[in-house]
Specification:
Chains A, B: Pfam families: TetR_C_6 (PF13977), TetR_N (PF00440). The structure is a homodimer. Chain A contains ten helices and no strands. Chain A has two domains: about 55 residues, Orthogonal Bundle (Arc Repressor Mutant, subunit A); about 140 residues, Tetracycline Repressor, domain 2. The first copy, chain A, is mostly helical. In chain A, helix 5 runs antiparallel to helix 9. The interface between A and B is large, with 58 and 58 residues.
Chain lengths: ~210, ~210
Amino acid sequence: MSKARGPYSKGVAKREEILRVALEVVSENGYHNTLNRDIAERAGLSPTGLMHYFGSKEELFIEVLRARDRHDVATFWDPRRDFRGFLDVIAHNATVPGLVQLYIEYSAEASFGKHPAHSFFIERHERTRSFMREAIQKAQYAGELGPNVQTEEAANLIIASADGLQQQWLLDPSVDMVAHLERLWDLIRAGSWADEKSPLVQEAQAFRQ
Amino acid sequence: MSKARGPYSKGVAKREEILRVALEVVSENGYHNTLNRDIAERAGLSPTGLMHYFGSKEELFIEVLRARDRHDVATFWDPRRDFRGFLDVIAHNATVPGLVQLYIEYSAEASFGKHPAHSFFIERHERTRSFMREAIQKAQYAGELGPNVQTEEAANLIIASADGLQQQWLLDPSVDMVAHLERLWDLIRAGSWADEKSPLVQEAQAFRQ
């Protein structure tokens, strides 16, 4: 960021501090219980002062989601970028329900084209999908997954399941998100080694016609 | 409904009409672009008159979701209650983005305990899960699925994927929700026939240790 040089650097540092504080407050209180005032107070600012750094509550929260992704990728994912790293992120999510609420809420809002989170979620989905494709291919090179994987569809299914499971988990915290995603991976693995020419599988496929 | 008898029946009929109208308006305009005024107008009521039948916008929209489920189950699902019926509901969803928006928005809101949609989504999830377990068992009886299915987890994965795919589809209408869910079913099928004792599968499993 070019703004990090010269007279702007103090502002950039304060922005970073606000994001760190906002991440904490949302993790502790959840999205719906977080007021601008709470974040401003903990960052030693007035609510108006806070809005000097972020134009709107939406902009602030999108930056919170972005900061969270950076943190998760740095801590759990990079440079391994494999499925285990992804599961580590999900396991970590189970410790920060407030952030999962924010993520679920904004990804729903993003589906309405006019919400400022729209382009953030489009880009995020593309990035996650490309990570996931890499993870699948890496597992194929390693021999963990066999040759029969529809990589694009499998990647979308993993991401869709992770999103849906986070929603189920918010409704019922006993849902084990990681165990379910491991199961999905097992299914992808079973499909990847399935011999589509075996009589059993052909017989089963006949039901689809 | 006992209210359908006697002096209440006219009110019940009007309520039904409002729900029908609201379903139409949300299907056409989407959730975020639907005002109470639009629904009231088309039902021949004032906004205040509308609120006489439904205490709040939230209550009205939860009833819209309930009416939509009744319609979908009657049209696509009952009495077959098999996976194909579920896919028919999803294919139908792709023709009513406004309702999918409403569903996604309210299921996100429902994850905050205090929202009036909370108990609706808990009950709905339990019902969908029990349908899905039935669909899996039915496919096993029919010989389409083999013996190795973790029914509970598979049911949750299908529901989670369907929810997550609807979100992906709202962001990118080219996502083929039905094709992805058919792929997931194929994976469950592959897993259901997988011989966990085969050397290939055991070798692959060793990667998990």
